[in-house]
Amino acid sequence: MPATKPSDLFGSLAAAASAGLVVFAGFLTPVSAQTTDLVNKSSLRVCADPANSPMSNEKRQGFENKIADLIGKAFKIPVTYTWFPQATGFVRQTLNVKRCDLIIGFAQGHELVQNTNHYYRSIYVMFHKKGNGLDKVESLDDPALANKSIAVVAGTPPATIMAMNGMIGNAVPFPLTVDRRHEAPAEKMISQVASGEVPMGILWGPIAGPLIKQMAPDLAVRPLNKETKGPRMSYRITMGLRPNEPEWKHQLNEFIKNHQAEINKVLLDAGVPIVNEKDQLIKQ
Predict the structure, then answer these.
(1) Could you tell me if 20 and 161 lie in one domain?
(2) Which of 77, 82, 74, 14 is CA-nearest to residue 44?
(3) 17-70 tens-digit pLDDT
């Protein structure tokens, strides 16, 4: 879940890896022609959290798993995984020691990796039961929220805005970074909102959208695209790779450019809210 500073953005956004093919005249060449700045030349090596749904899981059901499959298909190489909990040390013990060659979901500008071009842009969302008096709320400045409990992840941009609005006393806090093998804060938050225990919840869209689609599709979900102060609510998501691998970065940027429509379909099918540069929702 992106947080206010780039160094905090990694949260729930990492997964995946690779070893690709060179681009020649706009087409991918055979595996034998790969460049030397890639560690592995026979498979798309993905490092991902084994329990980070809806992004990734060991059953390869996450939307980042499906994007990895798109890359493998385009490069005509199999996708393999190294599973590692996405917590402190994830990059250091996976990408940096060359156990994988790419992290698929990484916030743009993160200093731990070299970023590709962004392949989608998403936004924080609010969600609540329909008909509970919050159907017309469009921002955290709305007076209707003044005395309402709001579930929010501590340390994220919406929590900052709530603090600026003097609403932090109404916050029902959830942790930013957890071991998803043992804890499921996003699922817990959605369940509490769906049951009416908490009137409203706020989550990073790529987490909220797919989980709400699976768990509580009747909830009302709206992007936080009308905030007028504080940190931004939308962020560009890239793929992360090691520094000094320019050919690999070029190949991945070419993949993103040539397969954007397919990437968007994977995201939208999963329920991920994707937005344009004006924070307007992109629809299928």
Answers:
(1) no
(2) 77
(3) 322 222 222 323 333 334 445 556 789 998 899 999 999 999 999 999 999 999
Which pTM does this prediction carry? 0.85
Contact 215, 191 (CB under 8 A): yes
Q: Are residues 45 and 116 in the same domain?
A: yes
Answer whether residue 20 is part of any domain: yes
Show the tokens assigned to 233. 């609510």
Span 186-220, pLDDT tens digits = 999 999 999 999 999 999 999 999 999 999 999 99
Same domain, 44 and 101: yes
Is the domain of 217 the same as that of 244? no
Task: For strands 171-174 and 150-153, give the pairing.
Answer: parallel
CATH number where 151 lies: 3.40.190.10
Name residue 258's amino acid.
N
Asked whether residue 57 falls in the same domain as residue 149, the answer is no
